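Narrative of activities, Objective 1.

The group set out to show that a structural description can be obtained from nothing but a protein's sequence at a throughput compatible with the screening campaign. Below is one input-output pair from the validation batch, recorded exactly as produced.
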Amino acid sequence: MSDYASEKYIEAKKWVSEKITDGYSWDDVKTLCVSIDDEAKNEFIRLRDDELILPEDMEFREWSEFIDEMKKGYSAIADPYGLSNGSAGTTLPIPTDPGSPWTQYKKYLLGQKDGKRRISDNAVTQIEKNSHWILNHILRDTRVTGPKKGLVMGSVQSGKTANMIGLATMVAHYDWNYIIILSGTIDNLRKQTRDRFMHDLLASGGVAWHILDKTGNPDYMVDVQSGKKYMSDNLELNLFQNGKTAGQWMHRYVTVCLKNSTRLRNLITWLHANPAKAARLRILVIDDEADQASINTRKIDINETEEELIERTAVNQLIMDLVNGNNADGTLASAPFQAMNYISFTATPYANVLNEAYEPSLYPKDFICSLPESKEYFGGKVIFGSDEDENYPGLDIVRDIPQEEISELKDLHNGYSFTIPKELKKSICWFLCSAAVLRNRGHKKPISMLIHTTAIQNGHFEEYEVIKAWLKSEKVTGSIINTCGEVYENEKDKLTLEKLRICYSEYSLLDQIDDHFPEFDEIKDDIEVLINNVVNIKMGDEKEEVYTDNAIHLCVDNCRANKVAEDGTYLRIVYPDDHALKLIEKAPVFIIMGGNTLARGLTIEGLVCTYFGRNSNQADSLMQMARWFGYRKGYELLQRIWMPKTVQEKFELLEKIDEKLKAVFEDYMLKGRSPSQFGPKITTTATIARFLLTSKNKSQNAVECDFDFSGDSYETTRFEDDSYLSHNIKITESFLRSLGDAVQSEAVSSAFVWYDIDFSILEKEFFGAEKYHIYECSSLYSDIPVFLEWMKMMNQEGKYLQWNIAVAGDKKATSKWNVGNIQVGKIERSKKTKQSDYIDIGSLRSGTDALSDIQISKLSADELKLYKETVKKRSSIIQNRGGLGVEDKPLLLLYRIDKDLGKETAAGRRTKINSNADIIGFSIIVSGEPSGGTHARSITIRLPE
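Output recorded for this entry:
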């Protein structure tokens, strides 16, 4: 019998798992899911030889045996979407028995709430895959290996808490008995996280969950549900209650701890109070928002040895003590925990991978993974669009705040102005219309607007008073209703169901969207009712929150708000729980002003509209403020964001940074690279370098990598619509004719290639002075001079002396480009409508055109296998060129864009080129591994030797 547990069968197992998930039976899979029995062998050969899914040495006669073996211990295969130190910690299957806490949580998630599924099947499946992957990269016994440390990157407001709870339930099934969540620096947010864990874990069950909360006393913790005091002696840590009564619930403990030195010190002291109990603790630490407070911001000296004392921030030191098994004073505890696993969760991991990587530090030495975004999530790529993926042109929901309005806001914050700027008025009016539409539809959940314009608390209160006075003036002036009508008519057709279908075709709830917009007269009365009742959240007899049906709840969320609130009211936002919602006839409406407390962690429920006037030169701070990312079920077409254009451009750049960082994770994972050996590289091009990835004291060991073009590609995407377009055609055609005859590509039928062209010819005849003109707004305008200097240096070292040059096109095009002996189809591209000063096509290169110069007939057997895999997966194309015979041959890829073509999308985000002349675009593809240069273009962490 073959060793079916070996890695070479992983693709086959994934194929089987997909078929079982799709509803095929095991008998179906045995016949390879084909309808004619005689075809099974042919299908087997196809999967093995063409698709490369089955091992090349596997025989058809083994297939039935392989399926029988797989069926015995079957569990869904987790997608390998992270990078690790080369070894999965365990190979535990996904729990399936009915009494498992994971099974119970999964059942809870798939259950009904208000007559609707809590979350979709796809979302639950993704949580399962995420949790299972992480489960198999941590250990139940770390006394020999030392603590496991990993990092999970998830998008802002993307459902990280559900993934944390999913992981908690899965590890609880496999004997981890204590789960610690480190939650922020604001106790209100900690309580929000604690209550979410408590609600979901107790509602799902599966084990006896105990939520143990902080006290001011290090001697005991308190069970939140029962009020019972817990000394560490009281912990029941055996597999079953009393260690012998099989069939009774297992006990699992959860603590949500504030990142506060006193709280952490008390927790550590309590955990170690009974060494015998401590030695049986199997702990999972989940560090939520791990780039906040957990990072050491004190000066670090890379030359210090582990024995030398590094003065650290108190919270960072205490988390390290917790993870490394020390007492609260830093001394080694008398008994090590049986298991310690530390996992940091964050949407902005720059500080976590750039600060320090000493062995005792919190650096994720063992694994890093990225949580895939759900197809129900509205994130940066969906809202702002992606240049890399034409399926995401961006949504027409972002409105500009002009610079003069930012100045007006500053006067308002300082108490010099008592009028509301024009765009802020429009945003509030759109929110009121949206709230009325939702209430008209019978929506019952909270409906919110976020106004985030300053971090200064006095500014929030000035804003609050001016907005409150403006809303209350409606009885006298009636101007707000008129503005609402104008805004409603102007905005309601900007994002239709059809436009959403085009811009986010993968959105999984398209068939559930209510796209009916009533006439304004049908919602006018409800808007008037809301405006005429502007209130705060009231305080009941038991100090419980009391909400009003037909009112706008005006809130200020900062640390001073409730201290200055009128008696009997709350100024800070507290949303109604399920019980309170049942007492309200219509959906409650909230307008929330604030700054730092809204910038991280807090979920704004039913966030329909955002007016965002902040800016930051720190990428992680800016990204964390993006509360408008998230799930918008029920009001997809109503969401709107107001922000300055400069801030919008930064978010577009951040999307590129994140996509490239995720690509680095995937590439490292595929190559088996460990985070302890290779620090992830984070792009910081000249454009992106306008703002920091994170604060300097959070990235102390960041180092600039040498400017290196190897293993990457660069292309022109922005062009001037002037005489230079015709100039570029003339220069390119003259250059290509001088090269002689081209040959048709073996890899891309619509491409032609010139092989082995001296780089000196390209430098002089194409890139030289007065030759191809690069528009100054193109990123290549500043990069190409540096690239040419770098290439000269590489030439001196004997590298990249000769290039391949290819012209690619559309073989179906009726409009052709004739150059010398070739005729190639012109290509079609469209331009972004938001750019009026120049032509921006977003991306140029198509599919596998980067392989145009691969000579298939000359590939070895291994190279041919790599080529087939690359073409099939359409990923790592640039990186894999090095293994296809062109490791020392860069490629200059040329296209001619037809000026008369281009799709005018129904979503309005793209339109025809309509330029004065056709456009010549080029892409440079450089094979090979990074080798070094002279100018920084990315940063990574300095790792200890």
